[in-house]
Batch of 3 targets.
Target 1
Amino acid sequence: MSNLFSNCEFLISAYKTSQLPDDDGMEIAFAGRSNSGKSTTINALTNHKGLAKVSKTPGRTQLFNCFEFKPNKRLVDLPGYGYAKVPKKMKKHWEKEIDSYLMNRESLIGVVIIMDIRHPMKIFDEQMLTWADQSGLHSHVLLNKADKLNNNDIKRTLMKVNKEIRKYSQSTTCQVFSALRRMGTNELSQVVTPWFSEPEQDTDPFEKN
Ligand SMILES: Nc1nc2c(ncn2[C@@H]2O[C@H](COP(=O)(O)OP(=O)(O)OP(=O)(O)O)[C@@H](O)[C@H]2O)c(=O)[nH]1
Ligand SMILES: [Mg+2]
């Protein structure tokens, strides 16, 4: 099924925030622990199998990978956080770059936080929810890899997480997802599409219309 994101193309990979595309327009970021399925989710949402690189080895995405689906409208695949086996120096680099991205990126309008449904709400996920709330950004949680659980466990986890996310943010939403089976992509598209239709913030108060 086609959606706003169906004609998405790879734009650029950035090792540092300074290499990202110009900070204009709007973008949403896909954040989550390493191996949670960020890259697979982008491929499911855009209906484009090989767009974002997927790997069985955690720590695969070690760059900010940017994709453009409309002029100046982007999806950003973030490096996974919390993967212990990454060398210390690289971990430091990424923590610094992701922090800087989240704090300074004007075109960032929302984050999709991807969790493995079997291990939801880890410390970084909670921090991301808190941070998005405090920054006035949209946020939406995907409980990914639902194909790994039975229906009862899915329902139980969804209820539990729905309750828990309220501690961190009043406005965040949550859904069950399977990037592998492309289950839940319509719902995801319906949640994030309106984020892009809001008027862009005028950052220059002196600019004349
Ligand atoms: N069973 C199942 N496996 C999935 C699902 N989504 C992703 N995977 C698998 O999980 C592994 C990691 O997926 P990625 O999309 O590369 O995860 P990532 O979050 O981008 O990982 P990093 O780039 O390392 O941070 C791959 O083997 C995927 O095939 C899902 O919904 N169900
Ligand atoms: Mg990845």
Target 2
Amino acid sequence: MQIAPFELERWQSVWENRVELNISESGVEPLTVRDLLDDPAAAEMLLGLRLGYPQTNGTEELRARIAALYPNARAENAILTAGCAEANFLVSWLLLEPGDEVVFMLPNYVQIQGLAESFGATVKPLWLREKLRWAPDLDELPRLITNKTKLIALCNPNNPTGATLTAESIKAICAAAAKVGAYVLADEVYRGAELEGETTPSLWGNYDRLFCTGGLSKAYGLPGLRTGWIIGPPTMIDKLWTYHDYASMAPTMPTEKLAFLALQPARNARIIARTRSIVRKHYPIMRDWAAKHSGLLTHIPPRAGAIAWYGYNTGWNSAEMGEELRTQKGVLIVPGNQLGMDGYFRIGFGGDAEVLQKALGRIDEWMAEKSEKAKAKEAR
Ligand SMILES: Cc1ncc(COP(=O)(O)O)c(C=O)c1O
């Protein structure tokens, strides 16, 4: 099997700890272990924890806490995975065969696209349209869906645009899937990191052939725990457990216990409130920066997530832009091509606000130098 490099993950892994100003992250400043052990009994529990094998699919109690995040879900609808990445991997591995077609929302975290192509499936983009404020054009659906469509893969709230699907779009997408018996996978890992208003409703409950993936990496600020999950029909969750046995097999024991603490309802609410206060506080920096460059950049405010997505009309190649910012200015952004869309770039605003301001200043310098060079070239 040929697999293509997962450029986005490799770009961040290689450079995030080597650049001066990393604004490539998509989550908020992570919590510490101490933040989770905020009562003495919890600290004692962790110190006395025997590092045996945990329940491989997640304990019933933890799966019940995960299921409680979804309407009418129960522990048997859930399986614990190593991050949302493993959740997406397992569903793709279970479903996809050579010759299948996958309708894939773009731009996006392109993991499922890469996996689908590796498994011999054909990927058909369901583009989010900037002129629709990053909503999909539902009129495109009939053309994309055929009898070979096995899966429609969505990211809601979307990485990188931060847009969320309307109830009407969700209904239309599920109805289109139902026509050909396709599955829907909704990656909802950014759910809970809304800048304003209600938590984005899960797709759960909209369709019977549905998987919702999620985890603690983004809205909970706990990416280092590597806690993810899949919510699905119990018979499919049972099948996925077999695939999980062949993949990570089990979570780590500290992961299992710390995830259980993080999802305790009162603590869960405090963690989500912290995330929402960070994104609310930092986003105006991104909005004002876009306004300052309104002749050059396009930007539609995200509904959720600590990520801002910018387009530009200058013809810069986004991979080159990312490379030049890294090498010349010590700034790590995510170039749009790594998210399936050249001509755009993504900035994470959930980290340190001073780092963010400094990095934006360096991007200003780079953009000014670029336009100077372009003007000089024109004058020649
Ligand atoms: C949409 C989406 N899904 C999944 C992941 C992977 O999440 P995790 O770190 O929980 O494996 C990411 C990470 O950036 C993501 O953006």
Target 3
Amino acid sequence: MGGFDGKRVLVVGGSSGMGEATAKLAAGAGAKVTIASRDHDRLAAAAKRVGHGVEPAILDATSDASVAKFFADRAVWDHVVISAGAGGRGSIKELDIAAAQAAMDGKFWASFRVAKAATIAEDGSLTFVSGGLSQRPAAGASVIAAINGALERMSIGLALELAPVRVNTVSPGPVDTPMWDRYGPDQKKKFLDGAASRVPLKRVAQPEEIAEIVLFFMTNRFVTGTVVPLDGGSSRA
Ligand SMILES: NC(=O)c1ccc[n+]([C@@H]2O[C@H](COP(=O)([O-])OP(=O)(O)OC[C@H]3O[C@@H](n4cnc5c(N)ncnc54)[C@H](OP(=O)(O)O)[C@@H]3O)[C@@H](O)[C@H]2O)c1
């Protein structure tokens, strides 16, 4: 893929899953990539897997101070991707308000903080990762649906506000990433198999497939204000 030589790419959430796959694809295409997240060891391991001289950096997108520190040098990024976030699953009766607010902070406000602080080149791009629950909310996931819906709406507004910087969102269906490792291997497999059975293509996505659309957002100079469902047809079923 052309157009990446010397380009500076920041992937917040780049130490795992879709962020890591995006970092790998961009770095392999010649970009100078920084992966940022909270945990030093996870970053170091991811930097090794990604290779290509990718730079790890500590950044907690839930912390105003951490975000301010990271962006204090006012470096100009060509492309910024935010794929951080987790939590928020549970019914309204089970989920306490603090946990729901933490999930909102960890994804919606985390994305807001990074988008506000980052300086992006005029011909550059900003990409968010939402999630298919925004289009098809499910019982037990209404908070996640709300977070992803809010993120998608914000990204469209930002596309108008930040132009000529291009702003887009990929809205994935289920993806096989370490996000599900917390369930343990057996439960993870059961969960992903169950999710796959509800996808028209009868499988879940691989993180590399999400990375491909993120790189398209970076390189296509006319794409902005879009929310692309990459969900094997789930949002159309
Ligand atoms: N996997 C799916 O099936 C799926 C489907 C639809 C949407 N999504 C969404 O897609 C996004 C990426 O998911 P994924 O599956 O790639 O997850 P993942 O493998 O768990 O990776 C998440 C990344 O975000 C980082 N992160 C989390 N909180 C952060 C914070 N406060 N500041 C900076 N970095 C932070 C994590 O590192 P540290 O924890 O070490 O900081 C990690 O690098 C998430 O928002 C998720 O909700 C996932």
